[in-house]
Write a structure and sequence with these properties.
By secondary structure, the chain is mainly beta. The protein contains one helix and eight strands.
Length: about 110
């Protein structure tokens, strides 16, 4: 079972191969961030945690008028947590059950 949620501010409960692991994240989905190195700015639409502890965030920039006129969508880009800073207000995220990890409940043996 692979299930987790990134709510409110910082914690992801990650179930992997029957192991419960709590991972702290500095930012949450919906946060508006800027990469300190490139200046890239966007809204967090995804978060990953890798085997060796690397935490990465996928940020999607706002759509420009030129992109909209061409029918293009902005691509998300991935950045390491350490090079990001919060720069804007959190974007509201949906509350509906889409079947993703936010709607997943851990089995009783894994609940704390």
């Amino acid at each position: 079972m692979n299930c987790g949620s990134l709510n409110g501010g910082a914690a992801l409960l990650h179930l992997w191969k029957g192991t419960v692991m709590k991972v702290e994240f500095a930012f949450a989905t919906g946060d508006v961030l800027r990469d300190k190195i490139t200046g890239y700015k966007g809204t967090v639409i995804g978060v990953t945690f890798y085997l060796n502890g690397c935490k990465r965030y996928c940020m999607q920039p706002k759509m420009t008028k030129a992109m909209a006129d061409k029918g293009e969508l902005p691509e998300g880009e991935w950045f390491d947590e350490e090079q990001l800073e919060a720069v804007g207000k959190k974007v509201a995220t949906g509350k509906s059950n889409t079947g993703g990890p936010k709607s997943c409940t851990a089995p009783p043996s894994h609940q704390r």
